[in-house]
Design brief:
Elements: H1 16-36, H2 40-49, H3 55-68
Helix pairs in contact: 1-2, 1-3, 2-3
Length: about 70
């Protein structure tokens, strides 16, 4: 199976790098939701706009955002 983001080998949806980024993105959503009331889509957009967000997390957020449209 290939990673949904980069086509590296994956066990499930993502390669090991994007899987870790995915876990971090999902884990932090609850904190953002409590603090800001942001929806999942708003949160993903904020992740993409944040200059401190890493490349793998941005790639995962972009992929997840494309699924919400």
């Amino acid at each position: 199976m290939k990673c949904m983001v980069c086509d590296r080998e994956a066990v499930e949806k993502y390669c090991e790098f994007h899987e870790k980024a995915y876990q971090n993105v999902v884990q932090k959503f609850e904190e953002w939701k409590r603090a800001t009331g942001a929806s999942w889509k708003q949160y993903l957009e904020a992740v993409l706009e944040n200059s401190c967000t890493g490349a793998w997390a941005k790639e995962v957020a972009e992929q997840l955002l494309s699924e919400t449209k």
